[in-house]
Structures are given as structure tokens and as C-alpha cells.
Amino acid sequence: MENMDDINLAIGERLKGLRRAKGQTLDQLAERSGVSRAMISRIERGEASPTAVLLSRLCVALGQSLSVFFAAEEAGPPLMRHADQPVWRDPQTGYLRRSVSPPGLGVDVVEVTFPPQAKVSYGAQPANQRQWQHVWLLEGEMELTVGDTVWTLQPGDCLFMPVADVLSFANKTDQPARYAVIIDIRKDDMP
């Protein structure tokens, strides 16, 4: 498993690469995202670990979803050993995101451990992104706000939704929740 410094460096390199591919300066990305230029620079250098909310704001300004941000672009070997699965912890809520699936295959499988009493609220996602996801609750209870609807998931429940429509994930209980997210990261339009 990668350590947090390695993850922060990888996040920084990915952010810098996407920003440059879009032809944006640090100042332009700061203006579009509402994140300070200094913070973006620190993230790009791997000196700061962005929260899920902050990273989501940067992704929106770059015209993509947070799920696609974490997805690998190139296919790797067909087996992803547990010890090799990248893990990222949101410094604000402490939720743990483990990328389970082999990279670059068009579908991303993620395991999330969500702490008790934690909530992550996202701003608007880019509407041009039509990625879809299943959230399959394995343990605990989760509340997801998708568009105008609030869904409460119990163990075994699976919710299918467009990635761009998710406004928040919340665990209102005193126990951690664990769930799998299966994301279709292809640009295909689904039903």
C-alpha cells in the first residue's frame, strides 16, 4: 500500500497534469474553483492533502468528476493485490477510499470506510460527465442525497445513480459504514 506522502504526490501530479492539459494557469483554476492559488500550488507539489470537498471543487473547475480524477488512464495487469491498492484518507472527515480494481479498464471499484457522524457534501458536478455508479452498502447505514431525493441505505442495499447527481454522503450513526462503489468511468451515455 502506498503511504500518504506518495498518495499526496500522485494527487498533485494528476491535478497539475489535468490543469495543464486544460490550458489553465494556477490563477485561472483558483478563480474557477474558489480554491486559493496558494492551496492549489501546495496540492500540486504534494505538500497538502486536499479534502474530498476541495478536490471535488477543483475537479468541477476542470470539467470532470472526482471519480474520474482518481481513475487510472492506462490499463494495468488484471490482478490488483490488496497490498498494491491505493488508499486515500480524506483529511477532513477521515473517510478511507481504497481503489480495489485493476486500473484503466473502464470500470472502477472502490471500497470506502466512512466514519461515524461524518458527512461529505459536494457542490455541483460537471453536467457533461455521464458517469454512473452503484453504491452497495456492506456494513452500517448511509444517507445519500442524490438530486432532490434522500436515500437511506441499509446493509445489502445498492443504489444506482449518475455520479454528477450526488450531493452528499452521510453516516448519521455511531458506527462506521463500509460500502463498495462501482463506477462506470467510460463516457458512454447510459439510461
Outline:
The chain is α+β, with helices and mostly antiparallel strands and 191 residues long.
What features would you describe in this structure?
With 191 residues, the protein is of the alpha+beta class. The chain folds into 2 domains: 4-70, 434 Repressor (Amino-terminal Domain) (Orthogonal Bundle), CATH 1.10.260; 82-184, Sandwich (Jelly Rolls), CATH 2.60.120. The protein has 5 helices and 10 strands. The chain has helices spanning 4-21, 26-33, 37-44, 52-61, 66-70, and strands spanning 87-89, 96-99, 107-114, 119-121, 132-139, 142-146, 149-153, 158-162, 166-170, 177-184. A 6-stranded antiparallel sheet has the order 1-2-3-10-5-8, with no helix packed on it. Strands 4-9-6-7 form a 4-stranded antiparallel sheet, with no helix packed on it. Strand 1 (87-89) and strand 2 (96-99) form a beta hairpin. The longest helix is centred in the N-terminal third of the chain and has 18 residues, at 4-21. The protein starts with a helix and ends in a 7-residue tail after the last strand. 29% of the residues are buried.
> Which whole number gives the mean pLDDT?
87
Radius of gyration: 16 Å
CATH T-level fold name of the largest domain: Jelly Rolls
Spatial order of the strands forming the largest sheet: 1-2-3-10-5-8
Looking at the overall shape, the CATH architecture of the largest domain is: Sandwich
- SS class: alpha+beta
Number of domains: 2
List unreliable stretches of 5+ residues.
none
Count the strands?
10
In CATH's first tier, which class of the largest domain applies? Mainly Beta
